[in-house]
């Protein structure tokens, strides 16, 4: 506290600081200022214009207490606000402290006239003796999640004499205000009083209610805000004006009169809107802290106050003291659906004790029927969730009620234009929307740019229910769907050249509204034409978000309404997107090809090069993933021709990577590398996001992944792994699931399995499996199962791995050669050599018919390994022929890694034939062509062999027959 001295008045211009009355006056009128703020002002004014450091100021005002600097800043801000036009008198000296400027005149404190409250002041009412020191109730000790709010409110009420807690019904305004009032009661010598206005229906009775609580006896005198204020006078008193919203004008007049006339009084008010009086400081009570949707561990979930409250209320009413991990996840989901509103969470917890958590979560769409068990002692409007919203709704004037009802149609927030569209007019829309924000029924959506608002989910459900009750839902739904279609169409037309992330952001934000619009459009009474157009317009967003199952189902729904006239352009876009979504979800052969062929036919008839490329690329990709390389080749050729016709740089890059991929799978690694190097060296085109909606990545990603594979086969395993990891990191940052899956399967995991990096293969398989499950992709789920089996075999778990991989491959139309080779390895590992040999021979035969020959060197090597049994004395000529064939194929393909593996097999055979010098001469030149990757299994083994052969140490050579590469 500041040092005490004689009662003085400091004056500067129209500003007076009265130390005797502890009052700041401007133009002779008292300015509201909290007690702690006045303490700071007194220290500064007594310093005679000298600098007062921050540390000195905090020491003198908060003697013996530890105070953060930001707390001091709260009070300094309050003082500046109170000084008004003279705020420049309070100077901040950066990094040091504060000082009061100006020429302050000093005089002894007199008794300046009290502010005029009435032309003829009435006699002061008497105050009867109070039988209790305060009527502030004790708050239950489990005020969860409010520690920061309580501390902030303590600081605010010390700096400002009027603080209003606002927020929607059930947010906990009253409980928080009472806790803070109890905490700061010693500052007011225990003189603190709760004035509960909830039961008052006549606004004129507000002053009387306050007088009754304060023990004032007015006799026959009319009770007004001024008489209550005069009765309080200079006493230090804290008033909690609770539940002001329905008598807001009268509550504001009372608070303003008290603050103006009573320098020792402070007011905490709770209301769903502000009092809007001079000196008022607002505090919007936040919802309880909620866990993110991806938080799953009990530790993560229990850190959040919403879950803590739910658990506390639920476990208080049942014998089981704890919840398991699954129950905690359900509780967290319920809390998120209820927006962290404490009252709603308490209702839900009460229901969960009898119905169970899963039943409560599944029935939250009927929350107003479900959440009806409140505390018996609560106010009537807090005994059911519906009553809480009814209280707020019935206080609204009719135009605001109408707007609130129609806003319930929006699932994911809305703009001013959207609100105007569904309400059907623009007059006074902004004023009414602002009023709903002030009354805590609409929330400003700070997460979205450009001026957007939203309803909390519970408020939205209530508004939608009211909309149905009034029979207004059909017209609101039609206007909503029409607006959504117009908006999505405008976005698509205006954003053609934007980067894909920027282009899709508004679509992502409006996803739930699109879903609602489509549900209405294809329902009885809806408009199928709107639904078809909206489906076609929104397919790029579903593809971008990797919501491929939803995309497939929505397009199928649209195409089912063929009785509705569909334009050729819409028909084209729907069929191409359907074909692509089928490729990645079900892979239905006939339906997939038919959809893509129909889309391509439409694109060619419309001379639409962009959609021709989309259809051709998808058909090429479909045949490639089906292992039909010869069928894919014509589409690669057509993509190249179409790209040449368009002349667009990104089209040419796309064509280059398609041709390169085709060459890679044919086995032409050197030619593929030339194309890929050109693609990699090209700068990303300015329209790089043009293909992201159908190749589901940027145009260069497939090329980067393919380049990693080619580098591996050409003998650069370190570069290959680095390239694959870099591409994975880029796509992970961009959060494009299909692109991530592509890099994992064809880049990271394929390279790790080939080089024996089991740890990397394991985490990549796990991530691929999780992504497939999260996005409902049957295509990637099947791939993940294949890789899980392959990983088990590479770990030496031959029986389990062979069984899993065999079952997984049975569900895959194309059985990739690398997976079949690992399956043969597993079968051989459990002694089924005949099965292993048959698998390899069948795949070799298939590669001849399909043209997919990139893995043929390895298949011939494995066949030779299976034909030759080193444990016998026989030297198998067919095995040697297979090894020689593998070497010749690898050299022709430019696949140094395959050549090394085949040479190692041949060297083992030569050693068994006692031809060690020849073995050395065969292996050394191949090994010497490697410049990196010496940590991989094959190169380490080759180094061991060469050292032993050069040293002539035959004792270690038999070890080579104990392993199969």
Q: Given the helix and strand composition, which structural class is it? A: alpha+beta
Mean pLDDT: 83
Name the strands of the widest sheet in spatial order: 4-3-2-1-8
CATH superfamily of one domain: Tetratricopeptide repeat domain
Could you explain the architecture of this structure?
It is a single chain. The protein has 965 residues and is α+β, with helices and mostly antiparallel strands. Among the domains are: 8-108, Winged helix-like DNA-binding domain superfamily/Winged helix DNA-binding domain (Arc Repressor Mutant, subunit A, Orthogonal Bundle), CATH 1.10.10; 135-284, Rossmann fold; 298-385; 396-471, Arc Repressor Mutant, subunit A (Orthogonal Bundle); 722-962, Tetratricopeptide repeat domain (Serine Threonine Protein Phosphatase 5, Tetratricopeptide repeat). Helices cover 59% and strands 7% of the residues. It has 43 helices and 18 strands. Strands 4-3-2-1-8 form a five-stranded antiparallel β-sheet. A five-stranded parallel β-sheet has the order 11-13-14-10-15, sandwiched between helices. Strand 3 (23-26) and strand 4 form a beta hairpin. The longest helix is centred in the middle third of the chain and has 22 residues, at 473-494. The radius of gyration is 39 Å and the shape is elongated. The termini are far apart. The model is unreliable at 111-122 and 376-380 (pLDDT under 50).
């Amino acid at each position: 506290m500041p040092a005490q001295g004689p009662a003085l008045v400091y004056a500067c211009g129209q500003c007076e600081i009265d130390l005797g009355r502890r009052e700041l006056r401007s133009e002779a009128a008292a300015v509201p200022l909290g007690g702690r703020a006045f303490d700071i002002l007194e220290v500064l004014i007594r310093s005679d214009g000298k600098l007062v450091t921050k540390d000195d100021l905090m020491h003198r005002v908060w003697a013996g207490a530890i105070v953060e600097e930001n707390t001091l800043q709260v009070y300094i801000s309050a003082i500046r606000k109170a000084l008004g036009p003279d705020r420049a008198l309070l100077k901040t000296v950066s990094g040091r402290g504060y000082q009061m400027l100006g020429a302050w005149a000093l005089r002894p404190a007199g008794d300046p006239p009290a502010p005029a409250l009435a032309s003829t002041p009435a006699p002061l009412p008497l105050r009867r003796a109070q039988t209790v020191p305060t009527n502030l109730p004790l708050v239950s000790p489990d005020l969860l999640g409010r520690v920061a709010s309580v501390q902030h409110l303590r600081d605010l009420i010390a700096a400002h004499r009027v603080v209003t807690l606002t927020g929607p019904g059930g947010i906990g305004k009253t409980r928080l205000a009472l806790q803070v009032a109890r905490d700061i009661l010693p500052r007011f010598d225990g003189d603190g009083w709760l004035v509960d206005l909830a039961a008052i229906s006549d606004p004129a009775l507000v002053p009387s209610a306050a007088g009754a609580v304060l023990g004032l006896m007015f006799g026959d005198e009319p009770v007004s805000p001024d008489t209550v204020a005069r009765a309080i006078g200079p006493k230090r008193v804290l008033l909690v004006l609770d539940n002001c919203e329905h008598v807001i004008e009268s509550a504001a007049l009372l608070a303003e009169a008290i603050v103006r006339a009573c320098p020792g009084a402070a007011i905490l008010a709770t209301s769903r809107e502000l009092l809007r009086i001079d000196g008022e400081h607002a505090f919007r009570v936040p919802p309880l802290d909620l866990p993110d949707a991806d938080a799953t561990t009990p530790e993560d979930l229990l850190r959040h106050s919403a879950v803590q409250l739910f658990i506390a209320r639920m476990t208080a009413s049942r014998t089981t003291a704890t919840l398991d991990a699954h129950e905690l996840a359900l509780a967290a989901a319920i809390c998120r659906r209820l927006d962290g509103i404490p009252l709603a969470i308490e209702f839900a917890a009460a229901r969960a004790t009898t119905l169970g958590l899963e039943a409560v979560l599944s029935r939250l769409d009927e929350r107003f029927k479900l959440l009806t068990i409140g505390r018996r002692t609560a106010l009537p409007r807090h005994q059911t969730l519906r009553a809480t919203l009814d209280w707020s709704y019935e206080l609204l004037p009719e135009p605001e009620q109408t707007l609130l009802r129609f806003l319930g149609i929006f699932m994911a927030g809305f703009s001013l234009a959207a609100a105007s569209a569904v309400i059907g007019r623009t007059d006074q829309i902004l004023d009414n929307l602002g009023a709903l924000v002030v009354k805590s029924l609409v929330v400003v959506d700070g997460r979205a740019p450009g001026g957007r608002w939203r309803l909390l989910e519970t408020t939205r459900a209530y508004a939608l229910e009211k909309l149905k009750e009034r029979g207004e839902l059909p017209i609101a739904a039609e206007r909503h769907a029409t607006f959504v279609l117009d908006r999505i169409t405008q976005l698509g037309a205006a954003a053609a050249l934007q980067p894909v992330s920027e282009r899709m952001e508004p679509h992502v934000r409006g996803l739930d509204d699109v879903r609602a619009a489509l549900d209405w459009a294809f329902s009885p009474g809806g408009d199928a034409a709107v639904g078809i157009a909206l489906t076609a317009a929104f397919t790029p967003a579903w593809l971008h978000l990797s919501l491929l199952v939803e995309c497939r189902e929505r397009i199928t729904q649209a195409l089912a309404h063929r009785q509705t006239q569909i334009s050729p352009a819409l028909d084209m876009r729907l069929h191409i997107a359907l074909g692509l979504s089928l490729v990645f979800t079900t892979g239905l052969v006939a339906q997939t090809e038919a959809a893509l062929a129909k889309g391509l036919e439409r694109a060619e008839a419309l001379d639409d090069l962009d959609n021709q490329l989309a259809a051709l690329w998808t058909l090429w990709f479909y045949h490639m993933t089906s292992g039909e390389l010869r069928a894919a080749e014509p589409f690669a050729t057509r993509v190249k021709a179409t790209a040449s016709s368009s002349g667009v740089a990104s089209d040419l890059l796309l064509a280059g990577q398609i041709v390169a991929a085709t060459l890679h799978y044919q086995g032409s690694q050197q030619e593929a590398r030339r194309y890929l190097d050109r693609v990699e060296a090209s700068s990303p085109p300015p329209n790089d996001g043009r293909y992201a909606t159908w190749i589901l990545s940027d145009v260069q990603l497939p090329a980067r992944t393919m380049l990693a594979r080619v580098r591996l086969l050409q003998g650069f395993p370190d570069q290959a792994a680095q390239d694959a990891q870099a591409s994975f990191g880029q796509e992970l940052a961009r959060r494009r699931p299909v692109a991530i899956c592509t890099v994992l399967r064809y880049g990271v995991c394929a390279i790790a399995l080939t080089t024996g990096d089991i740890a990397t293969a394991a985490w990549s398989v796990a991530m691929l499996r999780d992504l497939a499950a999260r996005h409902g992709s049957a295509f990637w789920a099947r791939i993940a199962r294949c890789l899980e089996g392959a990983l088990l075999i590479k770990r030496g778990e031959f029986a389990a791995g062979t069984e899993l991989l065999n079952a997984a491959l049975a569900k895959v139309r194309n059985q990739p050669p690398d997976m079949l080779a690992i399956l043969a390895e597993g079968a051989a590992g459990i002694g089924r050599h005949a099965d292993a040999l048959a698998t390899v021979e069948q795949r070799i035969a298939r590669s001849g018919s399909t043209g997919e020959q990139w893995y043929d060197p390895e298949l011939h090597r494995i066949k030779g390994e299976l034909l030759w049994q080193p444990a016998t004395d026989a030297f198998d000529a067919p095995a040697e022929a297979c090894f020689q064939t593998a070497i010749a194929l690898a050299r022709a393909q430019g696949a140094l890694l395959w050549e090394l593996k085949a040479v190692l097999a041949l060297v083992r055979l030569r050693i068994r034939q006692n031809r060690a010098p020849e073995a050395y001469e065969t292996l050394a030149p191949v090994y010497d062509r490697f410049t990196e990757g010496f940590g991989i299994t094959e190169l380490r083994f080759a180094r061991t062999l060469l050292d032993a052969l050069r040293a002539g140490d035959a004792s270690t050579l038999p070890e080579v027959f104990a392993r199969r590469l």
